[in-house]
């Protein structure tokens, strides 16, 4: 070991004699192809980027733990929610939605709030946002919706006409549009925002009894938002402001924490509740289903390496543990396919073998081979099932809970189309200052829309949510409320 440092080596572990000079034929001769160290450095450098996430590309992550403060075993057998004091390690990744990997943190956008619990029964991923709802409620519309949030294929610029054309033709988006254009569309930091599972999920207890559940992570630091002009300035001065804030807070021992609460809906209520509980554009009134405290999530460790732990992290709503099951929410159903598919494409077939994704629980299955199979690939153990050689067998007690399905197979729309009550309730919940900021933001966002018919169609939705809401936007855009909607 020269002067106490480790040898510099090639990727194959061979010591490198010279990292300053390429090998040439004579001091001024051509570079020799036999300079393997040079070739390897250049070739690996060309391959450093993996595809960024198609949405939620810009993000920041942290490690921590979840600790139960209120035993949930009456509702779910999921061990991470059972027993006061039960502690489970977890990893979270926060993110914006529409921007690319190098885009600014302080843009108006929902924020991803993706939590991976490394439970003793396998990983559990709760892949939510900082909003309890979403713009659409059928997965089939997601690629189109995201196209309008990304760059125009011709100009390569953001296109407000596309954004508002899609939203004005998809009235189910009104609730989340109101949320996004309000103060919570610009969180002051990643620490000062709440997180939500957004969807309805199913919890099942040891007796096989099921309830419906919605998750709410309430920031102990409180919710704080940023004014549009500060957000705009930061987007230029320090595009990584949120990333830096989270890293420094944890580095300085100022560990952010969230109180996890749930809303519990009795299984049968789903058939009679006044809103479709599986429609992710709608919330459940807290009066109807009050928040119940479950535990506390604390972030107390920064990643050692961003690429290894944040860029390569793979979350999926389909990654569930016994006691947690899917609801028929069409968005959740679509996501259960899409995420694991995205991971196999973006990170690789064996993404679950990477340290950040690898479960703490033992993995025993017959999945073999595939690119970058970095473990023992099952060694010489049984590689098919059923088998007579003691290979792992299924455990019937962990079967998913059977449930009734009714109706005919068809491409059916949701039964309920009231997209205005809850959006109007949200507007009416706001203070006058919040409403003024909301109106100013929407007017500013809609002004560049090229087509007046799109503006008028969207104004009708605001008006149906609340006449004052619609009138204030129309006034800001110097347009009259269409007679047909009055
Ligand atoms: Fe995502 N979403 N999403 N999404 N989403 C992805 O996964 C998708 C939706 C969310 O930090 C992708 O690895 C579909 C709702 C977060 O790694 C992709 C639909 C909510 C993250 C994908 C939705 C989310 C993603 C992009 C409609 C909140 C970042 C690459 C059915 C409840 C997770 C990737 C992380 C990432 C698909 C809608 C949140 C493409 C098909 C609703 C927080 O798989």
Provide the descriptors you would attach to this structure in a database record:
486 residues; alpha+beta; Catalase HpII,  Chain A, domain 1; ten-stranded antiparallel β-sheet; 12 helices; 26% helix; binds CIS-heme D hydroxychlorin gamma-spirolactone 17R, 18S; Catalase_core; iron; oxidoreductase; EC 1.11.1.6; hydrogen peroxide
Can you identify the CATH class of the domain at 59-131 and 187-278 and 285-357?
Mainly Beta
Supply the CATH superfamily name of the domain at 59-131 and 187-278 and 285-357.
Answer: Catalase core domain
- Pattern of helices and strands: HEEEEHHHEEEHHEEHEHHHHH
Average residue pLDDT: 97
SS-based structural class? Answer: alpha+beta
Taking the sheet with the most strands, its summary is: 10 strands, antiparallel
Q: Under CATH, the topology of the domain at 59-131 and 187-278 and 285-357 is which?
A: Catalase HpII,  Chain A, domain 1
Architecture per CATH nomenclature, i.e. the level-2 architecture of the domain at 59-131 and 187-278 and 285-357: Beta Barrel
């Amino acid at each position: 070991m020269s002067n106490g440092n480790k040898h510099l080596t090639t990727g194959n572990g061979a010591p490198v004699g010279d990292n300053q000079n390429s090998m040439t034929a004579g001091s001024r001769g051509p570079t020799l192809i036999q300079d393997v160290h040079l070739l390897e450095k250049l070739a690996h450098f060309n391959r450093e980027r993996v595809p960024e996430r198609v949405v939620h590309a810009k993000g920041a992550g942290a490690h921590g733990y979840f600790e139960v403060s209120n035993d949930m075993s009456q509702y779910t057998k999921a061990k991470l929610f059972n027993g006061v004091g039960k502690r489970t390690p977890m990893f979270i990744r926060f993110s914006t939605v529409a921007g690319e990997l190098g885009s600014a943190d302080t843009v108006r956008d929902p924020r991803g709030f993706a939590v991976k619990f490394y439970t003793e029964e396998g990983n559990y991923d709760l892949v939510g946002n900082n909003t309890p709802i979403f713009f659409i409620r059928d997965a089939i519309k997601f690629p189109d919706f995201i196209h309008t949030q990304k760059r125009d294929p011709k100009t390569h610029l953001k296109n407000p006409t596309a954004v508002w054309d899609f939203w004005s033709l998809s009235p189910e988006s009104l609730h989340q549009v109101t949320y996004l254009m309000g103060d919570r569309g610009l969180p002051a930091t990643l620490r000062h925002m709440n997180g939500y599972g957004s969807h309805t999920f199913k919890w099942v207890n040891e007796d096989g009894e099921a309830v419906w559940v919605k998750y709410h992570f309430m920031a102990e630091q409180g919710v704080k938002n940023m004014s549009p002009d500060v957000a705009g300035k930061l987007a230029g001065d320090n595009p990584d402001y949120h990333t830096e804030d989270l890293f420094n807070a944890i580095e300085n021992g100022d560990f952010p924490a969230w109180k996890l609460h749930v809303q519990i809906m009795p299984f049968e209520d789903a058939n009679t509740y006044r809103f479709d509980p599986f429609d992710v554009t709608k919330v459940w009134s807290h009066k109807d289903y009050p928040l119940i405290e479950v535990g506390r999530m604390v972030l107390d460790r920064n990643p050692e390496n961003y690429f290894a732990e944040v860029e390569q992290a793979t979350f999926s709503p389909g990654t569930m543990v016994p006691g947690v099951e899917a609801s028929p929410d069409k968005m959740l159903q679509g996501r259960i396919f899409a995420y694991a598919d995205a991971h196999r494409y973006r990170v690789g077939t064996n993404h679950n073998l990477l340290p950040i994704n690898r479960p703490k629980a033992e993995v025993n299955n017959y999945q073999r081979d595939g690119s970058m199979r970095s473990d023992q690939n099952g060694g010489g153990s049984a590689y098919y099932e059923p088998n007579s050689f003691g290979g792992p067998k299924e455990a019937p007690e962990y079967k998913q809970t059977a449930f009734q399905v009714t109706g005919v197979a068809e491409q059916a729309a949701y039964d309920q189309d009231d997209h205005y009550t809850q959006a109007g309730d949200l507007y009416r919940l706001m203070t006058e200052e919040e409403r003024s900021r909301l109106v100013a933001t929407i007017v500013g966002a809609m002004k560049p829309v090229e087509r007046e018919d799109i503006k008028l169609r969207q104004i009708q939705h605001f008006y149906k949510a609340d006449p004052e809401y619609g009138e204030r936007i129309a006034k800001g855009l110097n347009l009259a409320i269409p007679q047909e909607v009055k």
